[in-house]
Amino acid sequence: MLETHPPMTQAIRVLKDKGIPFVIHSYKYEEHGGTGVAARELHVDEHPVIKTLVMENDTHDPFLVLMHGDKEVSTKNLARALGVKTVSPCSPDAANKHTGYMIGGTSPFGTRKQLKIYMERTIADLPTIYINAGKRGLLAEISPTDLIKALDPILVDVAL
Fold this sequence. Notes:
Layout: H1 10-17, E1 23-26, H2 34-42, E2 49-57, E3 62-68, H3 75-82, E4 87-89, H4 92-99, E5 116-120, E6 129-135, E7 138-142, H5 144-151, E8 154-156
Parallel strand pairs: 2-6, 3-5, 5-8
Antiparallel strand pairs: 1-7, 2-3, 2-4, 6-7
């Protein structure tokens, strides 16, 4: 569903402030439904629905990983790419503390803390992506080129 008057989230404020063109889509959020539900509800393929994962390394330094909805992150390959022993998902409480967003509503835009962002390289090859706009059931449709301009993510090859 296309939103004509979307709620104003921190992520939407950042997109507007940076002059990034976007279209907001809302859908009925389902607990633990993930990108599969979002793709189904928006009638799009799951591959360009991008998940924003809050992770940490072995010294508990938090960071974000942007990954295709239909892929998983190889934590082993990511740790190797980062030059650390291990990486793992943050707990929901830690993720909320670092980002200001609830699990299922985490956007890479407008996080509470400035976090390093790693993005699966092939996301840049897509014509359009759908990424969380700062609230459960709310996605922003944007160009990966604009996302890269706005966030300057570090590109990695860690998809499974």
